[in-house]
Design the sequence.
């Protein structure tokens, strides 16, 4: 750490290269996510999935994040290892597990094994990823946090550029085949995942070795010297101690709503995928009721009650950002799961996953995903500058609107090369999504619960993905006759709405 001196009243300012080292592991994390996002639908289709099945098969990923991130955040707040510190043990364990899963995923012999491998792979990536957000809050003073999240955006974009384009590069630069027998993945995809596993592990290991964490007592001292610390502590106690009856009441209403929706879906004989969302609402209601009962009996100082209580006790800025996040990530999820199917049919006229034309289109989608991530990496450090001249919420609004227009434009394109222009808009949105909400959020959170709240904030990334996974297949099949390209239009509209909702966010930074 730069200028590290015992007894300092505030966290020392870090150098550029120290922020670089503490963020470098995100390069590998996004390598894993980039390969997953660009190729999972392709793997599912290759193993026999219909286009309307793809969203429900993808649901493993957001469900995993919903469960894993708050738990990892809660326990990482309470972890201290003499050599590895607070967050770094989770970085390392997640990297090992994710690297193994990346090697196994493209070798899945059946569709349901592939869906299970997606679950395992996403859980492993989330174990590494969640503490990285809190890592910035732990190690950086408030004036450097925007730069810290921008650095993460840079590495996310850079890692995903290469990861998304790897199958295309393997075929066009190295001559590795992108066509395989029915039910098997091509060598270009397999070798891309193998390389991704190596990069994931080595980059996270670099951050583990080259970064430092403050011991709990030193971090506590810094937090005590932050203006308004006592006020945050009072709020934290209220989160744990109040509202048992309120939790039971809200839980009962939520559970009844979920049961009513479930009954309506059953009576209307709609697609079974829609039942997932109804079950999720019912399940959350039951969890609120259980946590409320535990709270009334005095058992409130545990992770389960804390997670359920804080969903109803979030800071106001976090509540406002939740709406922005919902529509942003709904749009992103529609892009990730439907771009391959939409582009291969709409622009290439190919629906057979074993055909050369389909695989050419799928490879081009991977390259397009690399472009939007490349744009995100390039503009990451310009966003703090734009925010200084306008504001963070206006900057985020502009970027989201550009992303929405980019998604909608795919429908009107007939030359695949023009998709690169669409991806420029998506790249601006992606860079902002990865940095601006967190920069706005960090100043609104109690400093002694940074990891936990970052995990809870992930709910508003995961919930829209669950909603998308359960209703997009129905929307595409019922309203658009199975034409996947329309899912991108729906996503574009959602992203523009997210941009407009930025105007209601109260940001003190």
Sequence:
């Amino acid at each position: 750490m730069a200028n590290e001196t015992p007894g300092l009243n505030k966290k020392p300012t870090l150098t550029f290269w120290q922020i670089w080292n503490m963020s470098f592991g995100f390069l590998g994390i996004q390598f894993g996510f980039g390969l997953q996002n660009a190729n999972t639908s392709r793997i599912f289709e290759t193993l026999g999935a219909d286009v309307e099945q793809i969203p429900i098969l993808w649901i493993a990923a957001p469900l995993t994040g919903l469960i894993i991130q708050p738990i990892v955040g809660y326990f990482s707040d309470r972890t201290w290892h003499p050599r590895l510190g607070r967050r770094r043990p989770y970085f390392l364990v997640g990297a090992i597990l994710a690297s193994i899963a990346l090697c196994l995923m493209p070798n899945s012999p059946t569709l349901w094994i592939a869906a299970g491998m997606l679950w395992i792979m996403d859980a492993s990536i989330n174990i590494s990823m969640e503490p990285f957000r809190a890592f910035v809050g732990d190690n950086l003073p408030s004036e450097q946090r925007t730069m810290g999240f921008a650095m993460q955006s840079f590495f996310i974009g850079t890692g995903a550029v290469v990861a998304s384009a790897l199958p295309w590069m393997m075929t066009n630069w190295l001559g590795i085949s992108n066509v395989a027998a029915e039910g098997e993945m091509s060598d270009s995809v397999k070798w891309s995942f193998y390389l991704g596993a190596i990069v994931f592990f080595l980059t996270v290991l670099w951050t583990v070795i080259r970064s430092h964490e403050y011991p709990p007592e030193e971090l506590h001292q810094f937090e005590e010297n932050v203006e308004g610390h006592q006020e945050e502590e009072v709020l934290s106690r209220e989160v744990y101690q109040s509202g048992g009856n309120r939790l039971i009441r809200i839980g009962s209403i939520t559970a009844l709503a979920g049961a009513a929706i479930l009954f309506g879906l059953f009576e209307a004989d709609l697609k079974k995928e829609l039942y997932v969302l109804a079950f999720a609402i019912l399940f959350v209601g039951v969890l609120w009721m259980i946590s409320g009962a535990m709270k009334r009996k005095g058992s409130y100082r545990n992770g389960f009650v804390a997670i359920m209580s804080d969903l109803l006790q979030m800071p106001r800025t976090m509540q406002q950002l939740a709406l922005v996040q919902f529509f942003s990530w709904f749009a992103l999820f529609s892009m990730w799961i439907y771009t391959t199917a939409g582009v291969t049919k709409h622009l290439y006229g190919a629906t057979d996953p074993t055909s050369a034309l389909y695989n050419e289109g799928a490879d081009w989608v991977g390259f397009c995903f690399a472009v939007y991530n490349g744009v995100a990496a390039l503009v990451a450090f310009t966003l703090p500058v734009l925010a200084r001249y306008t504001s963070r919420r206006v900057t985020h609004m502009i970027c989201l609107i550009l992303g929405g227009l980019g998604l909608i434009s795919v429908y009107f394109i007939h030359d695949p090369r023009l998709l690169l222009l669409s991806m420029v808009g998506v790249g601006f949105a992606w860079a902002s999504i990865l940095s601006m909400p967190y920069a706005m959020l960090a100043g609104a959170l109690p400093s002694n619960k940074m990891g936990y709240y970052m995990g809870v904030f992930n709910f508003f990334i995961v919930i829209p993905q669950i909603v998308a996974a359960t209703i997009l297949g129905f929307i595409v099949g019922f309203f658009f006759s199975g034409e996947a390209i329309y899912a991108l239009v729906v996503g574009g509209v959602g992203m523009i709405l997210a941009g407009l909702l930025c105007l209601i966010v109260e940001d003190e930074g």
